[in-house]
Write a structure and sequence with these properties.
It is a single chain. By secondary structure, this protein is mainly alpha-helical. The chain is about 55% helix and about 5% strand. It is built from 13 helices and five strands. It has a three-stranded parallel beta sheet. Helix 3 crosses helix 7 and helix 3 packs parallel to helix 13. Bound molecules: adenosine monophosphate.
């Protein structure tokens, strides 16, 4: 079966955009591929989190992904730092990654600009660690956003360079994973583009939000003054509400409001009320599961251990081969 690797940022509090834009893809992938999903806690050290924050965030993210349907029996959902082989391969691969090419990485240049007070070596070699996350499982595919394409290209470069240096065919070249069908972009509620954590107060619907908060955010969403002519074009902020409705509401409900827009009888208050109900009906059971799993130490331990076992087995297979290739051959 083809292998897919994907990282998960250990910043908790997922919102509807994450769910429909990323998690649904994961759910599809775990059914059809040999998948390795890792919570990138080593990567996050570049920003120096406190131990409590780091652990708390990993716990939150693990609980959220489990609650949303990632199944430890179907995929390898693991925490990056539970797999020491990753750090070992990172050390080896750093020897063949060059300062010039690392400095040219767009994300590194970005960090120099945004946090000049903390340009650490981990940031410089971030693409090497990223490459290792992928190469260590000999991934065929990586689901990447536009901003990550350069990292994937660097991953191929590092893998190819290793193969050429030693005259081996150890690492395959991973490709960007694109699922057929259209990419879902969930709009935010404040009409500033896609729903995002950094979109300001009221932009995103978090699975962590209570019922009152969730509904209030929707009732306060930006709209316009209403259609004045039949079949007029829908303005961007209203289209955003329809787009979210498309994801969570029943087809007849969606049709009802689209018709009401077309014949100008729509009342945005009713639209938002319905949307608030439907969003809450969607979010509430997942939210409940997150709370449940987060406080269930046994369930978290079992999931993390199952994931680590699978990832370690795969990583150790590659590492064994790599050590032999490099010339680390044991005398005992
Ligand atoms: P982030 O933590 O914001 O970088 O997002 C994690 C993942 O969720 C990425 O793969 C994004 O593509 C996806 N994502 C975040 N926001 C949205 C959104 N509004 N619509 C669709 N996908 C999103």
């Amino acid at each position: 079966m083809e292998i897919v690797v994907s990282g998960i940022r250990p910043t908790g509090k997922l919102h509807l955009g994450n769910y429909f834009g990323a998690v649904t893809n994961f759910l599809h992938m775990q059914e059809n591929y040999n998948t390795y999903f890792f919570i990138a806690d080593i990567h996050s050290l570049t920003t120096h989190p406190t131990p409590e924050d780091l652990h708390g965030n990993v716990r939150q993210v693990l609980a959220e992904y489990l609650a949303m349907g990632l199944d430890p029996e179907k995929c390898a959902l693991f925490i990056q730092s539970d797999v020491p082989q990753i750090s070992e391969l990172y050390t080896y691969m750093n020897m063949n990654a060059y300062k010039g090419e690392l400095e040219r990485s767009a994300s590194f240049k970005d960090k120099i600009r945004t946090q000049p007070e903390n340009v650490n070596a981990g940031l410089l070699t971030y693409p090497v660690l990223m490459a290792v996350d992928i190469l260590i499982h000999k991934a065929d595919y990586v689901p990447v956003g536009k901003d990550q394409e350069q990292h994937l290209e660097m991953t191929r470069t590092f893998g190819r360079r290793f193969n050429n240096l030693y005259g081996v065919d150890c690492f395959p070249e991973p490709q960007a994973f694109s699922r057929t069908g259209k990419l879902v972009k969930v709009p935010g509620l404040t009409n500033q583009g896609k729903m995002s954590k950094s979109g300001g107060e009221g932009d995103a619907i978090f699975f962590d939000d209570e019922e009152k908060v969730t509904k209030k955010k929707i009732m306060r969403a930006v709209t316009d003054s209403g259609p004045t002519e039949p079949n007029s074009e829908v303005s961007a902020p209203v289209q955003n509400l329809f787009d979210i409705m498309d994801l969570v509401s029943k087809p007849d409900v969606i049709q009802h409001f689209k018709n009401a827009y077309s014949d100008c009888s729509i009342r945005y208050g009713d639209l938002k009320k319905q949307l608030a109900e439907d969003v809450w009906a969607f979010v509430a059971p997942i939210r409940e599961r997150i709370v449940e799993i987060k406080s269930d130490d046994k369930a978290l331990a079992k999931a993390a251990q199952t994931g680590a076992d699978k990832a370690i087995a795969s990583a150790e297979r590659t590492l064994k081969e790599v050590r032999e290739i490099i010339g680390f051959r044991r005398f005992y």
